[in-house]
């Protein structure tokens, strides 16, 4: 699936230029990232047909091409024919309807089946609030209903416009969990818009940056999150002093620890709120929480030790070294002092052991 | 009794037609980006400030044999719409238009375009979204608009006098009848009709203001 965007939008002094292809080779999440006020909403409105900029927007699904916008040909497919669902920052539920009626509105206008209805309602756990009035819902519940409503319209593309922005921390975690679950269940291409770096780290597969150049906003080509975090010319690189590991949790856990496989090796995580039902668990690990040793420490209290090879060495400011390790094909960053670096005589491609403090393993959903 | 029935028939029909006409006008005024829409707003608000006699005078000319009204009347063999119930209906509609357009316009502005846009993203077209989302949300505004339009038509006098005259059963509405009764010193009959109109108007206004305090949407 591919969305080809070649358009310019001008609104008063605001200019947005978009000349990119957004590719979903497998159903995945592309995050559009940019500061507030940079024009993310304008971009989305153009995509779903609420605004008609100059240029062309096409949707490609295998051999099939749909023209959503072609200004030169005088063609602009109206929003309701594009079948793009959107979840807004504040839910935007219809206030004159209860939860069930909101969901039915979408359900009756799509080719969703009764099975879809049942799955959707149980996945988002809205069965108990179906008869509630919209005004009775908490922020997190409202966003869950909005997500369910979007899913029930059986969209080609799901757009989430800062869906967590108006939620408190706890609801954010909850709703993020549901979003992740939706992704694995419905396998929809998702465009997720945010200005929150943590949401990028937890949800993104690819990142599209919106950047200000002169007085116009430019959309940058999509890049895999992994590449961006390794790229020292990218603005995320500083934040990239954390790395992301994809692991497969196993269903058996003991002593309150969840075992997560990364290749042949295993990480142990405090079970806490972690769910072992996920097929993939993404872990975000700060470089400062990773120390190195040349031999596997047998008598250490640190329970997570991974074996890997040094794949990059970089000196950073204030006498620190940032060491990139290749662990089972994935990258892990470790920040160590110049003193330790010299003492361990670390060289490229040298095998090392990375010790990860247990608490540094955050659930990144 | 004729006058009372006629008045209610007139008020009912004008309100019905007004709601239908005012809906697209109010939607346009609330949401259009059209630069010169203030012109339309000014024209619609004219009956608020014009003396009814001025409005009535122009209407009389427009409805008469030389105006478009005469031309329309020709289609069914008449030669004027003045001094007829149809003419009175057209007059009331024009006269009460701002009272119906404005509450609707305010209601639509308050609701905003967002709910309709959300409906679009859920595969609903404009008519679907308007009917199932905007209309129910604008219900309080419609109640205000209809009540005001109705009450205002009940109280109409100047315009009716100018274009309707005083034909019992055809154009003689309550307000005119009261005027006639007072002129001929039939005070007790005038008292009865006046009190009736006062009561009805009061009840209707109470109804508007009560529903207004319940709903934030649909203010005047």
- CATH C-level of the largest domain in chain A: Alpha Beta
How would you name the oligomeric state of the polypeptide chains in this document? heterodimer
Gross CATH architecture of chain B: Orthogonal Bundle
In terms of DSSP E residues, the strand content of chain B is: under 5%
Which labels suit this protein?
heterodimer; A: 365 residues; alpha+beta; Rossmann fold; OB fold (Dihydrolipoamide Acetyltransferase, E2P); 2 domains; twelve-stranded mixed β-sheet; five-stranded antiparallel β-sheet; 9 helices; 23% helix; 39% strand; B: 220 residues; mainly alpha; MetI-like fold; 11 helices; 0% strand; globular
Fold blueprint:
The complex is a heterodimer of chains A (365) and B (220).
Chain A: E1 2-11, E2 14-23, E3 29-33, H1 40-48, E4 54-61, E5 64-70, E6 75-76, H2 79-82, E7 84-87, H3 99-108, H4 114-123, H5 139-152, E8 157-161, H6 169-186, E9 190-194, H7 197-203, E10 206-213, E11 216-219, E12 223-224, H8 225-230, E13 242-254, E14 257-262, E15 265-270, E16 281-286, E17 290-293, E18 304-316, E19 320-327, E20 330-337, H9 338-344, E21 351-356, E22 362-363
Parallel strand pairs in A: 2-11, 3-9, 3-10, 7-8, 8-9
Antiparallel strand pairs in A: 1-2, 1-4, 4-5, 5-6, 10-11, 10-12, 13-14, 13-16, 14-15, 16-22, 17-21, 18-19, 18-21, 19-20
Chain B: H1 2-31, H2 37-49, H3 52-63, H4 68-74, H5 85-111, H6 114-121, H7 126-137, H8 139-154, H9 158-163, H10 174-183, H11 187-214
Helix pairs in contact in B: 1-5, 1-8, 2-5, 5-8, 6-7, 8-11, 10-11
């Amino acid at each position: 699936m591919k969305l080809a965007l070649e358009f310019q939008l001008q609104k008063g002094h605001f200019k947005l230029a978009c000349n990119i292809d957004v590719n979903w080779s497998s159903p995945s999440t592309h995050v559009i990232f940019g500061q507030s006020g940079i024009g993310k909403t304008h971009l989305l409105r153009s995509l779903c047909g609420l605004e008609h900029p100059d240029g062309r927007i096409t949707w490609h699904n295998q051999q099939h091409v749909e023209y959503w916008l072609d200004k030169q040909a005088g063609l602009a497919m109206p929003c309701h024919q594009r079948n793009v669902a959107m979840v807004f920052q504040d839910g935007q539920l219809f206030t004159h309807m209860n939860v069930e009626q909101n969901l039915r509105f979408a359900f009756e206008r799509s080719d969703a089946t009764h099975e879809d209805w049942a799955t959707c309602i149980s996945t988002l756990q809205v069965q108990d609030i179906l008869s509630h009035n919209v005004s009775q819902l908490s922020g997190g519940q409202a966003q869950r209903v909005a997500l369910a409503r979007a899913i029930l319209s059986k969209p080609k593309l799901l757009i989430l416009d800062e869906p967590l922005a108006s939620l408190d921390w706890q609801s954010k975690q909850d709703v993020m969990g549901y979003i992740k679950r939706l992704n694995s269940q419905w396998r929809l291409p998702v465009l997720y818009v945010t200005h929150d770096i943590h949401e990028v780290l937890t949800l993104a597969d690819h990142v599209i940056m919106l950047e200000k150049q002169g007085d116009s906003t430019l959309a940058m080509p999509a890049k895999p999150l992994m590449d961006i975090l390794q790229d020292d010319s990218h603005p995320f690189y500083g934040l990239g002093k954390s790395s992301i590991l994809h692991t497969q949790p196993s269903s058996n856990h003991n002593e309150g620890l969840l075992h997560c496989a990364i290749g042949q090796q295993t990480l142990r995580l405090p079970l806490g709120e972690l769910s072992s039902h996920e097929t993939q668990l993404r872990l975000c690990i700060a470089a400062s929480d990773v120390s190195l040793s040349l031999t596997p420490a047998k008598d250490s209290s640190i329970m997570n030790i991974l074996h890997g090879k040094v794949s990059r060495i970089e000196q950073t400011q204030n006498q620190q070294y940032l060491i990139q390790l290749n662990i089972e094909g994935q990258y892990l960053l470790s920040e160590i002092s110049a003193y330790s670096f010299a003492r361990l005589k670390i060289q490229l491609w040298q095998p090392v052991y990375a010790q990860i403090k247990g608490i540094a393993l955050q659930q990144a959903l | 009794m004729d006058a009372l029935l006629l008045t209610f028939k007139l008020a009912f029909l004008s309100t019905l037609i007004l709601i239908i006409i005012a809906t697209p006008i109010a939607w346009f005024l609330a949401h259009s980006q059209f630069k010169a829409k203030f012109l339309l707003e000014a024209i619609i608000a004219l009956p608020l400030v014009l003396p009814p006699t001025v409005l009535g005078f122009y209407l009389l000319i427009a409805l008469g044999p030389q105006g478009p009204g005469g031309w329309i009347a020709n289609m069914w063999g008449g030669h004027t719409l003045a001094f007829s119930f149809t003419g009175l209906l057209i007059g009331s509609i024009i006269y009460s238009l701002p009272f119906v357009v404005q509450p609707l316009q305010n209601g639509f502005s308050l609701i905003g375009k967002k709910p309709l846009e959300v409906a679009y993203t859920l595969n609903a077209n404009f008519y679907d979204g308007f009917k199932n989302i905007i209309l129910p949300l604008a219900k309080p505004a419609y109640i205000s608009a209809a009540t005001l339009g109705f009450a205002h038509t009940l109280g109409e006098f100047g315009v009716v006098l100018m274009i309707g005259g005083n034909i019992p059963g055809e154009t003689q509405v309550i307000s005119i009848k009261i005027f006639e009764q007072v002129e001929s010193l039939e005070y007790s009959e005038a008292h009865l009709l006046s009190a009736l109109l006062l009561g009805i108007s009061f009840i209707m206004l109470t109804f508007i203001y009560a529903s207004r305090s319940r709903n934030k949407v649909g203010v005047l």
